[in-house]
Design a protein that fits this description.
There is one protein chain. By secondary structure, this protein is an alpha/beta fold. It is built from eleven helices and 14 strands. The chain has a six-stranded mixed β-sheet with strand order 6-7-8-3-9-10, sandwiched between helices. A four-stranded antiparallel β-sheet has the order 2-1-4-5, covered by helices on one side.
Length: 321
């Protein structure tokens, strides 16, 4: 049985805007599911419905075996949620907030201090535990918010873009914690701007665009669907970009070009196509400033499925050492 089971889920607002238009997805117990989508695609709306902050207007969804519409209290007992903006009392210390969270979740008084200390240590905040949260950096607050979401050992953890804007150290800590949670059997629903993050952490990935799931599968399987490497070409000067595109069509299908690149073309023969491409362009009077052979990535999958690049794709998440 899926830990998260979504069938025909919809959300329509009073304005008539349909943010989510009948999506299906299933997340297995202990799976890390990466949920990707451009701004306005329905990603955050979907998460808000799954964590019972927003009521669906159609379809159904169960989390940890309970319906998000008819049994929201049961869902909330079994999930942890760390949203983009951590709602933390800045006047309290990290330890005080953790102990308060543990108490609110009904942990026995004798267990509160130990649980708080354990989680504070896991997210690398032991030395700052007795400082007021107002003195914490953004990354430290995000890590504290994650620790608070884990205090009651939830079956399912929802992480909404947990590493956006974080420094590499804080990001590495969060990545390590997600891996630890997977090893412990916790189901993680992860939304992220960073394609590398999804590639590194997610067992499967779903891509949403315009309120619909347009692709789903393991990162490896999705990249295999795209299959071909591509050449990204940038010119010194290009008065006739249309002519350049026409020339490169002879080598393969044109793709959406990332920022700073003039033309991107899929090439079946990979590196063997570089010299012929440069020769054809040179003979036509184009001067190539840069040419890069790029192997398939989740960004390619995203561009293929949605016709654009993800906002965070140009700013890759730093890979922990």
């Amino acid at each position: 049985m899926a830990t998260i089971d979504v069938r025909g889920l919809e959300r329509e607002y009073k304005s008539g805007l349909k943010a989510v238009r009948g999506i299906d997805l299933a997340v297995a117990p202990g799976e890390v599911y990466g949920f990707l989508g451009p701004n306005g695609a329905g990603k955050t709306t979907t998460v808000r419905m799954l964590v019972t902050l927003l009521r669906p207007t159609g379809g159904s969804a169960t989390v940890a075996g309970f319906d998000v519409s008819t049994e929201p209290a049961q869902v909330r007992k079994r999930i942890g949620v760390a949203l983009q903006e951590a709602a933390l009392d800045l006047l309290m210390t990290g330890r005080e907030l953790m102990e308060l969270q543990a108490t609110l979740h009904g942990l026995a008084a004798r267990s509160v201090r130990g649980r708080a200390d354990d989680l504070i240590g896991r997210v690398g905040l032991s030395q700052a535990a007795d400082r007021r949260v107002a003195t914490y950096s953004g990354g430290m607050r995000r890590r504290l918010d994650l620790a608070m979401a884990l205090v009651h050992e939830p079956e399912v953890l929802f992480l909404d873009e947990p590493t956006t804007g974080l420094d590499p150290t804080s990001r590495a800590t969060l990545w390590d914690e997600v891996r630890r949670l997977r090893a412990d059997g916790t189901t993680v629903f992860l939304t992220t701007q960073y394609l590398e993050e999804a590639d590194q952490l997610a067992d499967r990935v779903g891509i949403i665009a315009d309120g619909l799931i347009v692709a789903e599968g393991t990162p490896a399987a999705l990249k295999a669907e795209i299959g071909l490497p591509h050449l990204d070409v940038t010119f010194m000067e290009c008065p006739d970009l249309g002519h350049a595109r026409d020339l490169l069509l002879a080598f393969g299908k044109l793709r959406p070009a990332p920022d700073g690149v003039d033309v991107s073309v899929a090439v079946a023969a990979g590196a063997a196509e570089i010299a012929p491409v440069v020769r054809v362009l040179d003979e036509a009077g184009f001067t190539v400033a840069a040419l890069e052979l790029v192997e398939p990535s989740l960004d390619d999958v995203f561009a293929e499925k949605t016709g654009r690049h993800l906002e965070g794709a140009a700013q890759p998440a730093a890979t922990p050492a």
